[in-house]
Every structure is written in structure tokens, then in C-alpha cells.
Amino acid sequence: MRKVPLSRREVLRGVGAVGVLGALGTPTGVFADETTVRWDIISVDFAAGTVSAGGIASALASDSSKITLTGSGTFQPDEEGHVTGGGTWKTFSHTGTQTGSGRYRVTGFVSWERAPGTPPLPIDKIGNLADNSAGLAVLRVRYSDGSRGVLTVSCHLVRTPDSVFEGITTTKGFVDYWNRVAPPSPPGNENRTTFHITSRD
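Given the sequence above, the corresponding C-alpha cells read:
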């Protein structure tokens, strides 16, 4: 059979055709499992044994000024990091005087690490109890006054290592609210969070 020389343009055209056929073929494993993580600042009713959305959580800056957040949302822990959600914010001076308020929205995904742990209460009003998880999420946020920040949501469940804290920390502009306010003893109802992990095969 006589060999027919191919030009560089013809070679590149052939490579492009193979790429298109590959793209139209069976999807690769990276797209096979779409995981979504929901985060919530929660409300807990210890008497009823329920966990619900709609709680508050606070953190302190170095001068004891405070920020208090509500919020929930979702993110996909992958390269694209699709995010939804947000909540409300209020800031207070070290004396307790309110200094600002508004809303915030999540604008980007930074990182997510799942942690071991078992939900302490039997009734989950947010999602399936089996999807509940401890962990640590870091998200970029934008506040309604134009400032930006990085929100850290951390959830500690039963048998979660004590190195994992329960609550939130965040930055807002140049202020770092690094010192989370710990949850009060039951029946106190604030400074608690949770995650739910779902995947679609």
C-alpha cells in the first residue's frame, strides 16, 4: 500500500476529530459522582430532640467586638465549587452596642474536610439524618455593606475529635472574628452548626 504523506493541518484536524469523539463518548469518572454539601447554622430543641435550620452563631475579634450570623447554603467540593446561600449579620462593640447589620451571600468555595462523628439528636428537620456529618468548610462571602470576608463553618458531633470546634469564625473587611463563641450547655440554643452530604450518581 502506498504511503500518502499528511500535511500538519491534516494531522491536527484528525487529532481534533478524535477529541470531539471522546467528548461525545462515555463521561469520565470525574463527572460520575456529584456531591453537594449543605451547611446550616442550626436551632436545637433538646427536649424535643430536633435539629432545625434558623439558628444564630457568634465570634469575637481581638478587642471582644462581636459578629453574629444566621445562615445556610450549599457547595460542591470540586474544582468548580458551585455555591449558594448566605444569611444575616450583626456586629457589636465590646460593650454590646450594635454597630452594623445586613445580609451576606456566599461567593466562593475554598475548602471542605469531612470529620467523623454521630448526630446527637434523633430528629433531623433539615435533611436525612443519615446524611448528617461533622466537618470543616471555608467559604468566601460578600457583605451587604460591600466588605468581603472568609467564613469558616465547623461542626463537632458525638465522637468527633476535640480538635474540631463547634461554631463559626469569619473575617469582615480588615477585622478577623477569629474567636468562636462556644455553644452553651443544654438547653442553650446558639453557636451550633451542621452539614448534610448528598451525592447523585
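The radius of gyration is 23 Å. Try to locate this feature in the C-alpha cell string yourself.
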